[in-house]
Design goal:
Structural class: alpha/beta
Shape: elongated
CATH topology of the largest domain: 2-enoyl-CoA Hydratase, Chain A, domain 1
Largest sheet: 8 strands, mixed
Distance between the termini: 83 Å
CATH superfamily of the largest domain: 2-enoyl-CoA Hydratase, Chain A, domain 1
Helix content: 25-40%
Number of strands: 16
Number of helices: 20
């Protein structure tokens, strides 16, 4: 009895082979993105495409894509021209650590937001939260896909997709890069992130300049509306500014190196760099002899921390204050410092917002805080009040008092008025140390004499009044009543901080804080 002949025996392709061939065709179409012409234009402009950005971001061979075959779901005519629906998402390792990744592909329908790619992003966020993975957004998008969302049906589909799509509870770090024209959801995720780096030439805004021009009936320059200078110097939305896509991705990797994968673990430790602490012998010389002379406090920070580890955030915004991540003895520490190089270190509302945001970041991800103090107080006057100075100062104060990570303050020079409390004095830090050069009082004695006695320098009686106001303000006076726990020599500061952070390590919770500000907005 003869065997039944198979399809292959009859010279016809096996169904499994046909399906495999179909798979390769569909896969190639998805990987082709917006097509060779659009990709060539990006290459000529020196800008990476979305898949090249993925390759630079994640460790080689670790990216597993999710939703490769996703396309536009609302309009059948768009299926063939919407590979991956304009957003490439998946999981990959960054320096050996698993992360969730969302990369906008501007060559496909301007990476506009739609139902399918919204589901893809939602899935990444759910997995990242449930499994403790940092999230990375590489942003560049044209906003909502208008043909899909016009009308009540379209809006219902858009807004009904996920009622928590913009909710941050800081379970894991979110980082983003603004790498081109970023409107709508791309800008939302940038400002929702804990760290946002912006490439020069990119634009971050609610909507395009074209739409803004129509709304206000005058021409709008994209750079003026939402370019890097606006967000680095005015809004503070750009934590760092770089020249290239590669630089932006390198900044993301560096930021993540300081962070835990999730809020229930401590940040990773690194080997202590050679020559760390070498500059401590001459650190006192970095502080001018006259208390009215300016200097750059960042030089003092760099002398104290592990060599090459200072990673400054928002350097162009609120410049009277410095915020940044660094390492001491290989462990991540957050530094907050007054910078007399700008406005003598008098803190304004931008500095308040900058410091508040940084406090929330550190407390959310179990990073101890060191404050280096040299400030004459808060900026006052009509402009400060119009910028809501009282509210900003109290937001800052509340954030400081809600912090449950260790906080250590070192008063280098001046500390006056309410700023004394905001910079950790009055039991608002776990330890207060002072340099012998410290001077603490309610206000500058010269101002006090003017207010109380109406006298100017050189007036008869000014010297006597000044001496009366300028007493009991030395570090020994603070130490005598135990308002400062230690008076330390400047050259001992690094060793002191390392030792006290060891003392205050949160052993009972394995270094994890209470995260009382986990729902504090990232931008306000």
């Amino acid at each position: 009895m003869s065997k039944p002949r198979t399809v292959a025996a009859l010279g016809q392709p096996h169904p499994a082979t046909e399906k495999a061939d179909r798979y390769e065709v569909m896969r190639a179409k998805a990987l082709a993105m917006g097509g060779p012409e659009k990709l060539a234009r990006r290459k000529a402009a020196g800008v990476l495409n979305a898949r090249e950005r993925v390759d630079v971001l994640v460790d080689a061979g670790t990216f597993i894509e999710s939703g490769l075959f996703g396309t536009s779901a609302t309009r059948p005519e768009d299926r063939e021209r919407s590979p991956t629906d304009g957003k490439i998402v998946g999981f990959g390792k960054i320096d050996g650590r698993e992360c969730a990744v969302v990369v906008n592909d501007f060559t496909v329908m301007g990476a506009s937001s739609s139902a399918t790619n919204g589901r893809k992003i939602g899935h990444m966020k759910r997995v990242a939260t449930a499994r403790g993975l940092p999230m990375v957004f590489l942003g560049e998008s044209s906003g909502a896909r208008m043909p899909d969302h016009m009308g009540s049906r379209g809006m219902g589909a858009l807004l009904g997709n996920d009622g928590t799509q913009y909710m941050r509870m800081r379970e894991t770090p979110w980082v983003s890069a603004t790498l081109g024209y970023s409107y709508g959801s791309s800008s939302w995720y940038s400002v929702l992130s804990d760290f946002n780096v912006m490439r020069k030439g990119a634009v971050l805004a609610v909507s395009s300049a074209q739409l803004a021009s129509l709304a206000i009936k005058e021409a709008v320059d994209p750079e003026v509306m939402g370019g890097w200078k606006v967000h680095a110097e005015v809004t503070g939305f750009a934590d760092q500014v770089v020249d290239t896509d590669e630089d932006a991705i390198a900044a993301i990797k560096t930021f993540l190196s300081y962070m835990p994968a999730h809020h229930n673990e401590t940040p990773p430790e690194r080997a202590v760099a050679p020559d760390s602490g070498k500059a401590m012998a001459g650190i006192a010389k970095l502080l001018p002899q006259k208390r009215t002379q300016v200097y750059d406090v960042r030089n003092i920070i760099r002398a104290i921390v592990d060599a090459g580890s200072f990673f400054e955030l928002k350097a162009r915004f609120g410049k009277v204050a410095v915020t940044g991540l660094a390492r001491l003895a290989g462990r991540t520490v957050g530094f907050i410092a007054n910078n007399p190089l700008f406005k003598g270190g008098a803190m304004d509302t931008d500095a308040c917002e900058k410091i508040t945001s940084f406090l929330v970041l550190c407390d959310s991800f179990n990073i101890p805080i060191v404050m280096l103090v040299d400030t004459p107080g808060f900026s006052i006057g009509t402009e400060a009040e119009r910028k809501r100075a009282p509210g900003k100062i109290m937001n800052y104060m509340q954030a400081l008092q809600l912090c449950t990570v260790p906080k250590i303050s070192v008063i280098l020079r001046k500390s006056y008025g309410q700023a004394y409390l905001n910079m950790g004095g009055g039991r608002n830090s776990d330890e207060v140390a002072v340099w012998p050069t410290a001077e603490v009082s309610f206000m500058d004695p010269t101002f006090a004499v003017k207010i109380v006695h109406g006298l100017e320098p050189g007036d008869p009686g000014f010297s006597e009044a000044f001496n009366s106001m300028n007493k009991d303000n030395e570090p020994w006076d603070m130490a005598a009543i135990y308002a400062a726990q230690n008076v330390i020599r400047p050259e001992d500061t690094r060793d002191y901080l390392i030792r006290m952070l060891e003392v205050h390590r949160q052993r009972m919770t394995n270094g994890v804080g209470q995260h009382l500000m986990h729902a504090w907005p990232t931008s306000y």
